[in-house]
Batch of 2 targets.
Target 1
Amino acid sequence: MTDTPKLLLAHHLKTLKLPTVLREFDKVAQQCAAEGLDHVQFLARLVELELIDRERRRSSAGSRPPSSPRSKAWTASTSR
């Protein structure tokens, strides 16, 4: 793959907020090519990795203490 398509792909993946796909697509592509897998299997592996990573981040975010959200009343009274 030349640099231009990789740069464009990286830009699109960042815009779509797919960090795991961005980080792993090259490695997974090489693994799938070595195993003789097709493009659908390649994509399925990437999407699965993204889902697993999101679930992991979501569960670790749930274990942190919640930040206190600003109430509208507090925000309105302080902006005067």
Note: The CA atoms of residues 32 and 41 lie 8 Å apart.
Target 2
Amino acid sequence: MRAAVVATVMCLAACTGSGAVPRADAEMATRSGQDLNILSRGRHVYTTNCTGCHALYRVADRNAEGWRDIVASMAPKAKLDERSRSDLLAYLQAAAR
């Protein structure tokens, strides 16, 4: 269990350092027209819930429509409630290419 936690922390550090999972910031909120709190919650869902089953994907590798399809498919498997699903999708679409 400890090894899994260490591996997850290392993956998150590598992903956030490389820009693979950009931080939600005022510029992203302005550009997307989304509330910064929603984007921050969505990023948190991505970096905590999604890593329970797989490595994080580079957010910019998919477009907004692609993320919509993935979230629609994965949210039930991850047992995300509606708010978490909505926040996650808002973040991914705001950070997408």
Note: The CA atoms of residues 9 and 15 lie 10 Å apart.
